[in-house]
Design goal:
- This protein has 211 residues and is α+β, with helices and mostly antiparallel strands.
- It has one domain: Nucleoside Triphosphate Pyrophosphohydrolase.
- Helices cover 23% and strands 36% of the residues.
- It has five helices and 14 strands.
- The strands form three sheets. Strands 3, 4, 5, 6, 7, 8, 9, 10 and 11 form a nine-stranded mixed β-sheet that branches. Strands 12-13-14 form a three-stranded antiparallel β-sheet.
- A hairpin with a 2-residue loop joins strand 12 and strand 13.
- Helix 1 packs across helix 5 and helix 2 packs across helix 5.
- The radius of gyration is 16 Å and the shape is globular.
Amino acid sequence: MLSAPEAALSFASVAGVDVDRFRLALYPEPSRSPFILEDGVGDEELTPAAVLFPIVQRMAEPTVLLTQRTAHLKDHPGQISFPGGRREAADPSPAHTALREAAEEIGLAAAHVDILGYLPEYLTATGFRVTPVVAVVTPPFDLHLDTFEVAEAFEVPLAFLLDPANHQRHSLHYRGKLRQYYAMPYKEYFIWGATAGIIMSLYQALAIAAR
């Protein structure tokens, strides 16, 4: 039997994403329980949000589409993020929020997106209750960035993100306390915080489903 790390990695082979195994590892509908509590979350009311976890079915190997936020934004300036944002009153579901935000931020059309399922809600120390919506994105597609919010869009091999050798633990002082967080540096990009935490959530879900 494969170990948990080996099993998780086997789902991201060069042959592409095993869609059935991913669906087995994910929730078929958004769920508020269980949830993942980021280090430093207090008892404040959290703002509902959703992000798209877009896995691109490239010929060579699957990749994950990420963005770098512009430096002037109030929330998470300059950080590496998934496309996504706050849920608006008119959004009927977290999936709608994630798809709408992806279209607004990077111009990714919903026609290219096949939702596989959902990861547990991720509660952030910066005040958000995030629903990660995991999806396969089929090329070819054109991106059109909202340059006010997004400085860059780029792709990282899924196998790199699921490899435990690339999962780092770091710490920083936030609100007077030492907080722990995950990081996955890739080339010139420092993937950390909620983005790395949500990637770890997928890694753990795949490992559990493979047992």
